[in-house]
Amino acid sequence: MLDPRSGTYESPYRPEDVRVPAASLDGMRALAAAGYPLVLASNQPAAAKATVGLVALQAVHGRLVEILDAAGVVLAGSRYCHHHPRGIVAALSGPCACRKPEPGLILAAAAELGLAPARSWMVGDSDTDIEAGRRAGCRTILVENPASAPRRQGGSRPDGVAADLAAAAALIILSSG
Ligand SMILES: [Zn+2]
């Protein structure tokens, strides 16, 4: 969503602000039907910056799961980095191994679920998503969501580029067939 304070695209902080585009739901359903477990890996530094609390972010995640569930989409795992290198909440501030472009979220999820990164795909709409996927050893697809264009500087080298998650899913399924 567009943050009126910063004028930039931000993750939602309230459950009622969570939206999942139809193309994203379509893409996730297609991947699940093709046998791919779906894992969410997200930087959520708002709590480290004291913008919102962790409880509020958990409510946002709960709403996301509700929307996915209603659409018949089940996540095999979900991992968030709540840290920020220059946060103001001490317990969540400073360097960490999980904030993308670090690969920690992906590697931890792969270990937990017994997934091989080399046979997995990281799909994201920012350069840091692509870099995290590369460092984890995944193949990568950059989704060119217009709303998050500032998060792409053109320096990432994804294995594929797609307009939305449905198109990304089609690429993945084509590559695995
Ligand atoms: Zn972290």
- At CATH level 2, the architecture is 3-Layer(aba) Sandwich
State the secondary-structure class: alpha/beta
CATH class: Alpha Beta
Q: Spans of 5+ residues with little confidence (pLDDT < 50)?
A: none
Q: How would you spell out the order of helices and strands?
A: HEHEHEHEEH
- Over all CA atoms, what is the radius of gyration? 16 Å
Descriptors:
177 residues; two-stranded parallel sheet; 12% strand; binds zinc ion; globular; alpha/beta; Rossmann fold
Structure description:
This protein is 34% helix and 12% strand. The mean pLDDT is 93. The chain is built from five helices and five strands. It has a three-stranded parallel beta sheet, sandwiched between helices. The protein has 177 residues and is an alpha/beta fold. The radius of gyration is 16 Å and the shape is globular. Helix 1 runs parallel beside helix 5. It has one domain: 3-Layer(aba) Sandwich (Rossmann fold). 33% of the residues are buried. Bound molecules: zinc ion (ZN). The site of zinc ion has 5 residues, from loops.
Please render the helix and strand layout as text.
Elements: H1 22-33, E1 39-43, H2 54-70, E2 77-81, H3 104-113, E3 121-124, H4 127-136, E4 139-143, E5 160-162, H5 165-176
Helix pairs in contact: 1-5
